[in-house]
Task: structure prediction
Amino acid sequence: MKIALQLYSVRDDMAKDFEGTLAKVKEMGYEGGELAGLYGKSAKEVKELFAKIGLNPISAHVPYQEWKEDMKKTLDIYKEIGCKYVVIPYLPGEYRYGAPKYDEVVEDIKKIGKLCKENGMTLLYHNHDFEFEKNEKGEYVLDALYNEVSEDILKTELDTCWVNVGGENPSDYVRKYSGRAPIVHLKDFTGEKSNNMYKLIGIDSEEENNQKNTFEFRPLGMGKQNFPSIIEASKDAGASWVVVEQDEPSLNKTPLECAKISIDYMNKIGY
Result:
């Protein structure tokens, strides 16, 4: 497996200095970058900058709404960049299981997945914790999605932080999707699940509450996750890449400092 950084982790730096930030990520020791936006650059420019720096643009988080607007145009952008994988990163409430538009989402995912496959790419789905609610059959909503859409057109990008927050053991859950888990997200955290924790990624709670938020994202090795176990599980599952992600910096460190702590930790544990 190779190590990449989800560039959303350093998004402000990317917006200010795209090329310089990629160079710093490469210098830290990351082998790839996972895109989350192009910061006004064309696909050609992004491809050339990744090649110049020597980073692999392995994948990209592409919002479902962008696919809805124009599937072929959206795919062509990331195909030109050279992404092997494209990822649906998040579903707003109106598109989640139980909402009126959910069946439409599933059919669209099938269409997107087939289009990706026809173009030599692979569609992935990136979970949060809300997919760990049970449906009427007693299945997790996340499992139900993977049961409904065939493996040949949809694979997983399991976010091990949100798997943990959702109540499952990350290592066990990654192994559950052996052969269907080409990328695994490594993310550390401390504290407990709360209704306010999504404010950390810019999403307000859908319910007003006064619950204290103890949840905090952390660099790898600075929180509660068991990464030696998760890494072994990722290998067992056949993952090609592990991707470090930290949605917000912490410990009075900058995003780039947090990214450096994370890869230094990976080196420390012998990865």
In short: The two ends are 9 Å apart (CA to CA).
